[in-house]
Amino acid sequence: MHAARRVTNRGPPGGGPAAEGRLRVEPWLARNLCYRPATWLRGEPVFRLLRRYESSQWWSPERLREEQESALGALLRYATERVPYYRRAAAEAGLEPAALTARDLDRLPLLHKTDLVSHAGDLLAPQLPGTTSWKTTGGSTGEPVRVRKNRSALAAEQAASWRSYGWYGIQPGDRQARFWGVAFSRRARWRYRAIDFVLNRRRFSAFGFGRDELRAYFDELAGFRPAWVYGYASMLEAFASFCAAEDLPLAALGVRAVVSTSEALGLEARERIGAAFGAPVFDEYGCGEVGPILYECEQGSLHLMAENLFVELAPDPTPSEPEARRLILTDLHNRAMPLIRYDVADRVVPAPPCGCGRGLTPFRRVFGRAYDFIPAADGARFHGEFFLYLLEAARDRGIPIRQAQFVEAAPGSVEIRIVPAPGYDDEMGRALAQELAARSEGRLRAEARVVDEIPRERSGKIRLIRAKSATAPAATGPPTRGA
User: Fold this and answer.
1) Which string of DSSP letters, residue by residue, matches 75-144?
2) Cβ atoms of 261 and 232 closer than 8 Å
3) In angstroms, rounded to a whole number, what is the distance separating the alpha carbons of residues 223 and 201?
4) Using CA atoms, how far apart are residues 226 and 236, in angstroms rounded to an integer?
5) Vertex 281, ends 276 and 287: CA angle to 5°?
6) Are residues 361 and 387 in the same domain?
7) So what's the pLDDT on residue 229?
8) Are 354 and 460 found together in one domain?
9) Last residue of a domain, one of 344, 367, 390
């Protein structure tokens, strides 16, 4: 594992046409004249929390635990007094809300993703208008849900992320190349363009890319010259492999760090990405419901964002990882829709104290999520997020879909398996198939089929994508030394 460093700049490779005429904002201006005022206007105390988190990471594990338990007790009392779901759970367990402490946590039931759908209304706390935001989550499963968050909870997520990016020499406002999804609706596209501008980042679509698109991405990167790169592990690997095969001088861009997220990051992929970019690669693990969970430090441990999350570790061994634990999380800050004892259906492997000296709980590995690509007949590949965005857009238009899965039937052909909600009809499925073909610019054909259920993986998750070249979800995180 390499420490964060700046690669020596060997000269610009020459920006291509995609990079011409694009505004490139200096980091100080982006940080202090764009991002900082935006957080203030939204009522999100990101920078105040960031200063606190930069200090609290060095607290002892015992002091962090005391802070967690204090925050947890306050959350339990709040939720059982004000949120219908938890008020009912406390009554069934014979608990007195006003007297609850952290020691009472395990007397409340586990919360699952299906509960976020079936009990959505009962999980909401009364809020004043304008003080919350909605997040749509789904990731590698076929069950997108909506979670409401108050401003301070959103600020806590951002502060934890920026604190951790600081381990890699990155500050708010540093130019970021983001290999990510691109919204389908015009309104959403404008919104994300505004967010990208405020955060001084350039977005590179992970949807439907072939050789021409990857070459255009390199040309735009050469003009933009990002300080760091962020994106889906599989997309970063595909781009790094393309640049290496084409002998494109990606390492000459001077990227300080690459942050891989959303998917399993294997050892070979890590090495391939790092060699191509000439920069260290770090792993991030989180979920939309509770935000960032683990970040990899300079020493290779994955550290819990302990200021934001209280973790319970339930023994859940596998043949290859007998020390594996199931991850159960409580978001300590979200008062708009408290998530208490949320089972994210992933496993972690604890690690010994880390040499970096931080008091944040370390882990060696996380059994995270994985995405597949579905290939088109012309060789272009469509990332799993393409299909998630398509599904979210359909739900936003009122198409009642409970679950969905996109299955590669043949090269360039997709079967959409739909578990319908009340009000669904076959014409809606045909419309979704037609939109998939249109959004892929004719590269994919699709048919929709109604099914009673979608089988779950051994992990308990529903896989959003099933490609013929699919591999089982792998463990992510730094490899065991000597393994």
Assistant:
1) HHHHHHHH-HHHHHHHHHTT--GGG--GGGGGGSPPB-HHHHHHTTGGGPPP--TTSEEEEEE-TTSS--
2) yes
3) 13
4) 14
5) 130
6) no
7) 98
8) no
9) 367
Q: Report the distance separating Cα 142 and Cα 465, nearest Å.
A: 8
Q: What is the dihedral of CA 318, 406, 464, 269, to 10 degrees?
A: 70
**Angle, helix 233-245 to helix 211-224, in steps of 10 degrees:** 90
Residue 478, in any domain of the structure:
no
Q: What is the dihedral of CA 215, 219, 225, 231, to 10 degrees?
A: -30
CA 43 vs CA 35, 135, 214, 454: distances in Å: 12, 17, 38, 41
Whole-number Å distance between alpha carbons of 293 and 255: 25
pLDDT of residue 342: 97
Rounded Cα–Cα distance for residues 26 and 311 (Å):
39
What integer pLDDT is reported at residue 12 of this predicted model?
A: 33
DSSP state of 32: I
**Which residue ranges of the chain lie beneath pLDDT 70?**
1-24, 128-130, 138-144, 319, 368-372, 456-462, 469-483
Tokens at 285, concatenated: 């693990």
- The Cα-based distances of 235 to 136, 315, 385 in angstroms read 22, 33, 11
pLDDT at site 263: 78
Query: For position 75, what pLDDT does the model report?
Result: 98
Sequence-distant (6+) residues with CB within 8 A of 96 are: 90
pLDDT of res. 402: 80
| 99 and 115 Cβ atoms separated by less than 8 Å | no
Q: Dihedral of CA 446/118/331/463: which sign?
A: negative
CA terminus-to-terminus distance, the chain: 14
* 8 Å CB contact between 334 and 349: no
CB 361 within 8 A of CB 329: no
- Quick: pLDDT tens for 36-55: 999 999 999 999 999 999 99
In the structure encoding, which two tokens stand for residue 320, read together?
């290859």
Tell me the angle at which helices 426-439 and 384-396 cross, rounded to the nearest 10 degrees: 130
Same domain, 346 and 293: yes
Give the side-chain half-sphere CA count within 13 A for 316.
Answer: 19
Cα–chain center distance at 314:
23
In sequence order, what E strands does 160-290 have?
A: 176-180, 201-205, 228-232, 257-261, 281-287
Instruction: Provide the 8-state DSSP code for 102.
Output: G
CATH label of the domain that carries residue 190 = 3.40.50.12780
Question: From the centroid of its chain, how far is CA 117?
Answer: 20
Range of the domain at 154: 17-59+150-367
Looking at the structure, tell me whether residues 271 and 301 fall in a common domain: yes
C-alpha 433/C-alpha 394 separation (Å) is 11
What are the backbone dihedrals phi and psi of residue 311, each rounded to the nearest 5 degrees, phi first?
-115, 140
d(CA 229, CA 270): 13
In a 3-state reduction of DSSP, which class is residue 168? helix
Residues forming a β-bridge with 291: 287
Report the distance separating Cα 404 and Cα 410, nearest Å.
Answer: 18
